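Continuing the series of single-chain predictions for the mutant panel. This is the parent chain; the variants come on the following pages.
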Amino acid sequence: MFLLIGLNAIQNLNGFNWISVGFGEYLEIDRNRLSPKFSMTNLKGFFAEPVAQSMLAGLLSLFRGIDQFSVLKDQTKWVGDPIREQLKSLKNANVLLYGYGSINQEFERLLVPFDCSITVINSSNSLDELDQTLSHADVVASVVPDHPNTRNVFNLKRLKQMKSSSVFEFWKRIRYR
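Parent structure:
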């Protein structure tokens, strides 16, 4: 990348603020060529509130059948009791947060009124701990940066461990090559 090549060539630069929230695309910078005082910052937290709100809105939409109601409204159909049996409440749900950056922290804060049981699995946990919790989760929210350690974590084997009624929220920046 031109920006990275140019940045690595500047020996006396003290810092840089990236115009992104992630860091994966900047892992290849040779920091040894930069000043020891060089600091990199990014927009961490910038999108936490709107993304977490979108996560909650989508989750409530699925649990409360808003997606179905929207279709039925367009068809001018009233279903009533049969659809009520399919609706779920977020109250006391088991929520697994995979990753605990600013977005999942904000999502957890938004879940407080629903008295959810929250389990956090982050980089200090093992994948065995993730495997032990998946089958109990009503909601799995995966919000992690693109990194070799986060790629393919939710493979077919792990997705099959989840309850068929679970909701899987996958919010990840993916590198396209």
